[in-house]
Predict the structure of CRISPR-associated helicase/endonuclease Cas3.
Amino acid sequence: MMGKQDVPDESVWGKSRGLDPERPPYPLVRHLLDAAAMALHLWDVYLSENQRVRIAEGMGLGGQLQRARALVGLCAGLHDIGKLSGFQFCSRHGVQHLSAELRADSEKMSADRVGHDVAGMAAAAKVLKALGFEEGEELKVTQRMAEIIGGHHGRFHQAPDSINPDFLGGDAWSRQRVAHAVAVHELLGLPAAPESFKAPTAVLVTGVVILADWLVSQETYLRRRQRELEPSLAEHFRRSQADAPQLLEDAGLAPVPLERKEFAEAYGIIGEPNPLQRSVMDELPTAVGAGKRGGILLVTAAPGDGKSETALEAERVLSQRFGTRGYAFLLPTMATSDQMHGRVTKTLLNQSGQNAGLTLVHSMAWLNSAYADDGLEGEAVVTCDGDEAAAGHRRREADMRPQRWLRGSKRPLLAQFAVGTVDQALMAVLPVRHNALRLLALSGKTFIVDEAHAYDPYMQVLLGRLLNWLGAYGVPVVLLSATLPASVSDRLIKEYLRGAGHSAKALRKRVFPAPYPGWLYVDAESGRCTQMSEAQRQEQARARRMRLGVTVERVVHGSQGGPRNRMAVIERLVQPVAEGDGGTALVVCNTVGDAQETYRRLCRKFDRRSHAEGGSVQLLHARFPGDVREERTRDVTDGLGRKGPRPRRRIVVATQVVEQSLDLDADIVISDLAPLSLLLQRAGRCWRHENHWARYGYPEGGGRPTWADGPRLVVLDPMTSGGKVPMQWGEVYSEFLLGATSQKLAKLKNGTISVPDDVQALVEAVHGDGEQFNWDAPDSPEVNAWVAHKGKETAERSMAGLRAVPPARLAQLADLHSLEGEEDEWELSTRLGADSVRLLCAFVQEDGRVTLDPEGKESLPSAPEGERLSAATVRKVMRRTIPVRSDWLHGPDGDSVSPPESWTVHPMLGDLRVLYQPVQAGTAQAVQVGGRTLHLDENLGLVRG
């Protein structure tokens, strides 16, 4: 038992900033008990069964979940023990209430500024020894718990060996650290040290500690508890436990069980599941069997085969077997994520999941129209009390990021259901702050990656590293793809299995051949591989078989070429749509500039009405303001979607934004030459819903135009007959892949592709690891292009390997942050290429006013000194921004795009670039920036001259 002098001194404060200044600060011991109570509740309610089992096993406590639970609570209850240090003197208000005994023992206390996380790490060994953690293997346990304490602000540290001991104070301070720890330890039931503590397990526990700390550090909650301190610590702990459920529910993190409905009702689909979906429903449960540590499922099928619904049916099977809850559904782009978010929303509503936490997870998600302005500012979290910011880092005061729990920075992945870009998940394996929180969020769900073929070698390495960690955590994974080379899928599966404990040597002897169409399931523990039955696979192939007619048109870019001029060919191809029987055509261009010029020429020839006026020619690309792009995407998907109504005639000119996850059906697809896998993706927008309409009827009783006698892809090939890649394409695609695709198309038998039968062989022929030409002419352009392509691919893989955190078998947690970097910096590092910035197009009226619109009706907002802009105003501005390459704005005139002075301290607006376009005679003029002109055109979007 503690002596009287060892009772926790409640003058030691844990929280001060943002609380009632007329009252003493919030005592540290009570904050520690709050966090411990919340960690226990997170264990009971928020963590999935899979997470609880993995944590217990990682502590050597398999089958002893209650012991593991108490130890997680203890880690949370000790997280701020380092605040019993010189930290106490960083708040004038806090110092005023500090006891005389501790003040008297602070004379030698070092003035060195050490984060309380590092101080806690340094003090942990002595504190834990007082709790009985000291013998044998427990020494490693003590070190691991010290790492967790040191990492509770999101960044793990090397064991401190140079901290000035005076910073931790003298004997009185040391005794108080023990007294605080003993108080927490006793109220948790005196948990004994675990048998072991593996590093991946400690990462998850750190995530729980961070989350618990954030939940109980909300300003409103702390101010209420500050006013009503219970007489004893035991009563306080009971109150904290009673408060925890409401805090979790208010944060949107309380899990909601779904009412599992039949297939058609669950997804709002007319008809029965297709053979692929039915196979997952009927055969996957047997393949999963009695597995205990997760597994990885690869689903391959042609575009339009319902892979999304297949994945969600697989999630039902996998989550029930492996004890996960909810899912993260991740895609390549913001546009595809936005659309999938809408589909998942409807699916959850169909299954009584309207109260389930569902978030949209990408860097601009809060600007999506699915989010209302109300509550964007939300609840402040009191996590910064004086020493959290690194030296030299400027604090921005007017933080308008959405702080409601499931919209705030770093939090959306924590929701039960999350839809977003894969980048947000990949940051879990980059050395970014709070990567442990991301791993916690992902480890409790089924992990679904759509369009797995869409990632370059750099991102594939990062995805493989993430799968390695998820394999270690026994997380069920689903990979979806229409055009994934076998070499890539094989590598990803093996990365997952290595994380699950399989040796690299054993895996080198195995291959995991993916059926097409079909699915492949590999059990994490045994490595057992099961494929979709051949009978079901053949049935799926028959049900979706389509003979895609492929026409290659030799084209010349620019103003030359006569009848072979690219625009002349496009005009000839779309003429039946524009002037004949009507129908729908999709023209896919490789660059925004080409798309803008194509749209302009087609409008001039066939329909001078603008998009807003209901013209038959539409334009969609990524260089429109956000609100305009969202509206145009909706218009395009409504017009070419499954349900209709179908327009009588429609020509959509677009860029790559339409080749993934957008549910479009065109009567003909015309595409610039692209790598073969992407051409197949684009072709997947041709006659996509034909089988469904043939069975259930065309929208509003319509049908295909008479000229459309079958699905047809027309490829505009500038490389055939010895041509070259157009200069304006730059490095959009590898010259080798373009050349190999051109050659393969020229050799197509009868000018057709049988979908799905021919797809995988074609993908392997161009994108596979096999040699695709002989080396008799080593200096040929073909070989030079191949060497350049492979060199770039190798460099990207190497770069990703250097940047990623180690695999899950790491020795110390500090290895997760062995590279320095800020969060935004690492967010950019999920993809290689030119950095992007967001550009706002503003308009300078003739009277000098600056407005958001060329008509001069909406002034550019500014905040008076000492005030900040409302969330609605910030949203309005940000929704009008456009992502552009940052190097476009370099040069002597680059400073001309700086934001207004009043925006510079704002965390979002301060990073914008503003294009100030003068308005003359009612028309916005182009502006010279970075050696080129830029201007925003209402119909074309941002035009670069």
Observations:
- The first helix runs from residue 28 to 46.
- The chain has four domains: 4-250, 276-371+399-533, 545-730+748-755, 834-944.
- The two ends are 79 Å apart (CA to CA).
- Residues 371-379, 383-405 have pLDDT under 50 and may be disordered.
